[in-house]
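Notebook p. 47: complex prediction with iron/sulfur cluster.
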Amino acid sequence: MVLNAQKAEASASTSTFYKIDVTNCIKCYNCEVVASHSINIGIVEYPYWINGSFYGNYRIYINPPQEYLDDLDETIAGCPMECISKSTHQKRR
Ligand code: SF4
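Predicted complex, structure tokens below:
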């Protein structure tokens, strides 16, 4: 119970950023297969977050729904080119 309260407090003060850097992407489609709820790859496109943003070669998805997190961790582990990562940042007040 205390642990859940601590987790809730931590998530209220932090944001989690999921990033795809397509610079070295080989379009193997693994990420789209594992996390089709969050990632799309068109015929001419590199992978992008369905509900995310584009910044040059980077695609950013902030605070995805809790139910997607296991799949997103699997995409990070399964990307053969290490294009996908996540990081946690303090929210601005
Ligand atoms: S798993 Fe990695 S290399 Fe494969 S399409 Fe996704 S981002 Fe590109």
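Notes: The longest strand covers residues 14-21. Helices lie at 2-13, 30-34, 69-78.
Next step: compare against the earlier run before touching the bench.
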